[in-house]
Specification:
Elements lengths: L6 H18 L5 H9 L3 H28 L2 H21 L3 H29 L5 H30 L2 H19 L27 H27 L7 H24 L3 H28 L4 H33 L6 H30 L1 H30 L7
Helix pairs in contact: 1-5, 1-6, 1-7, 2-3, 3-5, 3-12, 4-5, 4-7, 5-12, 6-9, 6-11, 8-11, 8-12, 8-13, 9-11, 10-11, 10-13, 11-12, 12-13
Length: 407
């Protein structure tokens, strides 16, 4: 059997860890920063933070085309360099407007970088281990998600310095750029330009329903990741638990990647997807029901709420860890080899649409109806995504699948 953990694959995974560490070390604290430093209201916070995701979304389609049409190493280096430099912009932004501009523009290189790095990871994997390797690649994201928020919150708690966090993100991103600069790629055939401008050059039309399905799951996590700290404090009375929540969520993600590796080796991607999304739905439902269930329980209300709060983190992590690599594999397997970049950008575009809508809509709902209403919306949207998969998406994929070893 061909070697999975080759040198280039390990380098790309390390670089991926640094890029997501730099992203997640700031994510749970930015709402607090905007509120304390600029006096931003809930809906304004949602608007400012959603700009990043919207810009990333706009860049994704072009990123997939560029990655397929130009030397991937060059595209990777340029996008990683730009991603790192933008962290310096946070240090220089002295007003809310300037911060919003920097944050919004930062989404562009992030969108391009995640497409380029994940496509390079596929390129350096042996073909016989590709399905499995795509699943393990996500471990670097998950490890960053486990460590970064915890470290960021710890640093802020003892230093009360957002400036220190911005410097940390900048340095870590620069390290990632240096690691990716040492990756060796073999020569490949570029995608031939089509005579006419077509949508399929920027979005994988063959996988459109997979993308629609992913929007629902992105929406759910968009609301959770950005409003978790405030909801936990205002509704559940849990303070300082955001770092531990993300840690448990990431432990679930890591465990599911390891446990799901066997199913991915066997090509059972639809099984992994279905199992994951049901587990995640249970986690989101437990999260929003916990305040009510705790009050109805015979044991200590606070302890019941804490157990449900952290239990939901583990379940959501386990579910997303099964679901995400399965959907990425399904999207790649309905695309031709010359459209790997486009396939990657398509699944990420769909996630970004969901995340952006979640951040924006979640902020508006929270402002007018409260955070409980925002998280009930999460459950309804997530349940719609699960129903869509079992009623339509699974059959859609099996009809269009180009890889007989995957089902």
């Amino acid at each position: 059997m061909e070697r999975l953990w080759n040198r280039n694959y390990c380098k790309v995974m390390t670089a991926n860890f640094t890029l997501f560490f730099a992203f997640y070390v700031l994510t749970p604290l930015l709402p607090l920063y905007l509120s304390e430093h600029f006096g931003a209201t809930k809906d304004v916070i949602g608007l400012v933070l959603s700009g990043y995701t919207i810009t990333a979304l706009l860049f994704r389609p072009f990123s997939g085309y560029v990655v397929d049409s130009f030397p991937r190493k060059t595209v990777l280096m340029i996008s990683f360099g730009a991603f790192a430099i933008f962290f310096a912009g946070y240090l220089a932004a002295s007003t809310l407007l300037l911060f919003m501009i920097v944050r919004t523009l930062h989404g562009g290189p992030f969108g391009a970088l995640t497409v380029a790095n994940s496509t390079v990871a596929i390129d350096v994997l042996p073909s016989s281990r590709r399905t499995e390797g795509i699943g393990y690649y996500g471990l670097s994201n998950n490890l960053a998600m486990a460590l970064a928020p915890t470290i960021g919150i710890f640093i802020y708690r003892y230093s009360h310095s957002f400036e220190l966090l911005f410097w940390l993100a900048l340095v870590v991103a620069c390290v990632g750029w240096l690691v990716d600069s040492t990756v060796s790629l073999s020569a490949r055939e570029m995608a031939r330009p089509k005579s006419k401008l077509s949508l399929d050059r920027f979005f994988l039309v063959r996988g459109w329903l997979l993308g629609v399905n992913m929007v629902a799951f992105g929406f759910s996590f968009g609301v959770l990741s950005n409003y978790l700290a405030i909801y936990g404090k205002e509704v559940m009375g849990i303070t300082g638990g955001t770092g531990a929540y993300f840690m448990l969520c990431s432990i679930g993600l890591i465990l599911s990647r390891l446990q799901g590796g066997k199913a991915l080796r066997q090509g059972r991607v639809t099984h992994n997807a279905g199992e994951g999304m049901v587990i995640s739905l249970i986690g989101y439902t437990l999260f929003i029901l916990m305040p009510t269930l705790a009050k109805c329980s015979m044991v200590n209300v606070q302890w019941s709420m804490i157990i449900g709060y952290y239990g939901s983190a583990l379940l959501i992590g386990l579910g997303n860890g099964h679901m995400w690599p399965a959907f990425q594999n399904m999207t790649i397997n309905v695309a031709s080899n010359s459209q790997r970049g486009t396939a990657n950008s398509t699944i990420l575009i769909s996630w970004d649409i969901g995340m952006g809508l979640g951040i924006l809509v979640g902020g508006v709902i929270a402002e007018f109806l409260g955070y409980a209403a925002a998280f009930w919306t999460v459950v309804l949207v997530n349940a719609s995504g699960v129903a869509c998969f079992f009623l339509a998406t699974k059959a859609f994929f099996l009809r269009r699948n180009l890889n007989e070893t995957v089902r």
